[in-house]
Amino acid sequence: MKPPSGKPDHHHRVAARHEAVTACLIALRDEMVDAHPLAARDDAWEIVLAEACTNIVEHALAERPGAAFTLSAWLRDDAMYVRLRDRGLPMPTGYPPPPCAAPPRADTLPEGGFGWSIIGRLCRRVRFARRAGENRLDLVIPFFAAARARK
């Protein structure tokens, strides 16, 4: 899966802090309001990016003061193509965890661990690679609000 060619519609360098992730997502939504108003109202892309960026902050770049990652996004009528890059720790197994086969029982519900399942369910495509010391995550996030408006 390759993102659209050319310069991204949005590009952000994000400090590896939760507040910086929040600020980036707010800025991205604000930037999208004029360019793609239906997509700006869609919540799926924001949920996916919040989960993916939080994983980078809490796992890949944890314990690395001053670290940052990049978020590039290309907007199309029906989807957002996103490329996240960081030079943090690799995934423990080399790949994202597989999606949950079935929801856990309420009495055995862990505190976390659902982020990748959420990402996998809300994205049309997810691709992760580690190359030359860099984590590379490419996502295609459909705009559900835009699809509903066309019906």
From TrEMBL:
Coiled coil: none annotated. Signal peptide: none annotated. Residues 19-140 form the Histidine kinase/HSP90-like ATPase domain. Pfam families: HATPase_c_2. Keywords: Kinase, Serine/threonine-protein kinase, Transferase. InterPro entries: Anti-sigma-factor_SerPK, HATPase_C_sf, HATPase_dom. One of its GO terms (molecular function) is protein serine/threonine kinase activity. This is Histidine kinase-like ATPase domain-containing protein. The lineage of its organism: Bacteria, Pseudomonadati, Pseudomonadota, Alphaproteobacteria, Rhodobacterales.
